Amino acid sequence: MFQGESSISVDDKGRMAIPTAYREALSVACGNCLVFTYNPFDAHCLWLFPVDEWQRVRDQVNALSSFNPAHRELKRKLVGAATHVEPDGQHRLLLPHSLRQTAAIEKRAVLLGLGDKFELWSEEAHLKRIATPISPEDITAEMQSLNF
């Protein structure tokens, strides 16, 4: 559903505009109801979900046993930090201060469409990550079977 890379400006109040290319799709997919949360696997990155996709992910995470410390940590980072947001009249989303601070997102950010969700990176972290190629030892059997 969502794909592509967009450079984003964050204003002094912590608001970011939804790129024009995504506005209609978000309106249709989720009535502009979205959820920000931490990306529990990458520093300096937040996840932004359409609300229906978020509810699917949330339910899977909440079904994990809380007796496992890794499950508890995943619940804290995803469910505990989740914040529902809706765009204002100028198609801007307010990034929660604590999420923005933890991800080191200041004036410049990058929004990546990843199919069912978005990643929001600090511009510096994104540029560093995207410039680093996937190492041969990280290539999985599933990746090797791809034909491109």
Question: In the CATH hierarchy, what is the class?
Answer: Alpha Beta
Average the pLDDT over all residues and give the rounded result. Answer: 95
Strand order of the largest sheet: 1-7-8-4-3-5
Distance between the termini: 20 Å
Class derived from helix and strand content: alpha+beta
Structure notes:
The protein is of the alpha+beta class and 148 residues long. It has a single domain, classed as Chemotaxis protein chec (3-Layer(aba) Sandwich). 36% of the residues lie in helices and 28% in strands. It contains six helices and eight strands; from the N terminus they run E-E-H-E-E-H-H-E-E-H-E-E-H-H. A six-stranded antiparallel beta sheet has the order 1-7-8-4-3-5. The protein has a two-stranded antiparallel sheet with strand order 2-6. It is globular.
Please tag this protein with its features.
globular; transcription; Chemotaxis protein chec; 6-stranded antiparallel sheet; alpha+beta; two-stranded antiparallel sheet; 36% helix; 148 residues
Task: Please give a quick description of this structure.
The chain is an alpha+beta fold and 148 residues long. The protein contains six helices and eight strands; from the N terminus they run ββαββααββαββαα. A hairpin with a 6-residue loop joins β3 and β4 (45-50).
